[in-house]
Amino acid sequence: MKIAVVEDSNQWAEKIEIILKEVWKEGCERFHSAEALFHENKYYDVIFMDTELPRVGGIKATGIYKQQYDDSMIFLVTAHLEYSMEGYDTGVDGFLDKDNLEYWMERTFHSVQKKIDNRRRNVCAEFAISGEGKRWLKLRDIIYFQADKGCVQIKTKTGVYITAESLKRLRERLNQDGFVMAHKSYYINMEQVKRIEKNTGQRRDKMVVMSDGTSIPLSRNREDEVRELFWNGKSKAGRHRGGIFYG
Fold first, then answer.
1. Which of 134, 154, 166, 236 could link 161 by a cystine bridge, Cβ 3.0 to 4.6 Å?
2. pLDDT tens sequence across 185-212
3. In this structure, is the dihedral angle defined by the CA atoms of residues 66, 68, 72 and 78, taken in order, positive or negative?
4. What are the domain boundaries of the chain?
C-alpha cells in the first residue's frame, strides 16, 4: 500500500508514522507541505494530511490532488472538527481527531483495506494478444507471466494467452504491488501463491506452487521478498494509469 503523510509538524508526522508501523504494518513517505506532495507528482492509495498546513491548507490541497488522482483516499488530521463540513465538499474521505488519533487510525485501516480489496477485484489491464488483438484481463485472475522464446505467456484462471510484449515492459506498465518477480522468467501474482516448498531435485533451491498447481522456480536472491509477501499477506492493490481501468 502506498501511503503519504503530509504534516509540517515533525512531532505529529512521527506519531502518525509510528501508528502506521504498529497498527497498519505499513511504511510511508513524509512531506512537510502540500507543495512538496504536488511536486512529487505521484499516486498514493492513502494520504494523511494536516488541515493547517502552511500556504496551501489540507482542505484546498485535497481538492487539487484529487483533480489528478481521484481514487486516492485522503484523511485530514485535525484538532478542529468544525472544518469537516467544508472538507467533504473537496473530496476528503474522512477526518481524524488528533486527540484520539490511534483509535481513529485503527478504525480507518479496516475501511481502507476493504475499499482497496474491492478495487483490486475489478482492476483490469489491456494486453495485445497474439492472434486475437487487444484484450482486457482482470489482474486478479492472472496467475503468472512467463517469458518464453521471445514472447510472454499469460497464465490465467481460464486459459493461456500469448503476447509479444516483453516481461520487462509488462512489469513497468503494470507496476502492481500484488505481483513480484520470483525468477528472471516469472512474474507471479502473490494472491495466487498456494505455498513455497523445497525443490526435491535441488536441495538448496525453493519452488513456488501456484493455485493451478504449477511449480515455479524461486531464485535465491528473490526468496526473502517472496517469503515476506507470502507470510505477511502484503498482496495489496494500487492505482495505476496507462492502459488500466477499474470496472
1. 154
2. 999 999 899 999 887 665 557 899 999 9
3. negative
4. 3-120, 124-246
**Residues 6 or more apart from 144 whose CB is under 8 A from it?**
155, 182, 186, 187, 188, 189, 192, 210, 214, 216
Q: Which residues contact 149 (CB under 8 A, 6 or more apart)?
A: none
**Residue 97, C-alpha cell as written in the block:** 481527531
Three-state DSSP state, 43:
coil
- For the entire predicted model, the pTM comes to 0.54
Dihedral over Cα of 69, 106, 175, 189: its sign = negative
Is residue 65 within a helix (H) or strand (E), and if so which, with residue range?
Answer: helix 58-68
CA 91, CA 59: separation in Å to the nearest integer?
Answer: 9
- Does the domain at residues 124-246 carry the CATH identifier 3.30.1360.170? no
Is 113 exposed, middle or buried (CB count within 10 Å of its CB: 0-12, 13-18, 19+)?
Answer: middle
Q: Tell me which CATH code domain 3-120 carries.
A: 3.40.50.2300
